[in-house]
């Protein structure tokens, strides 16, 4: 009794079942750059987060010392403005890139993938814009209509 011959395609021949392909859209090096961004931003984020946590919780009064005055005093120095801005931007872009990858991997229909991506991009842009506005327009020294300093303003304003 002879067995029928079965032909198995050699690996990496490029023959992929059409249901697993999404067309021949030329993405160029975007995916490679996105992969590289994840690695570089991840390393930078580790440093940014640990210094942020150390400076906020380990130095001074710890968590009980974090209040409006603490933030006002910290953001009075340009280094901390830049530090928190870099933390915000990198964390949001790093997270959005990761979610974009998950959407591309698991959303099978083009329409679903498009709308999930649009929601992700709009939410990311909104958080980055609003967070940046908060950092740059933060004014701890509150004044009344006459320009006099309010009595509940933090000590750094006096």
From TrEMBL:
GO terms for cellular component: membrane. It is found in: Membrane. Pfam families: Sdh_cyt. The chain crosses the membrane at residues 32-55, 75-93, 114-138. It comes from Micrococcus flavus. GO terms for molecular function: metal ion binding. Keywords: Heme, Iron, Membrane, Metal-binding, Transmembrane, Transmembrane helix. InterPro entries: SQR/QFR_C/D, SuccDH_FuR_B_TM-su. This is Succinate dehydrogenase / fumarate reductase membrane anchor subunit. Signal peptide: none annotated. CDD domains: SQR_TypeA_SdhD_like (cd03500). SUPFAM superfamilies: Fumarate reductase respiratory complex transmembrane subunits. It comes from the Bacteria. The keyword Transport does not apply.
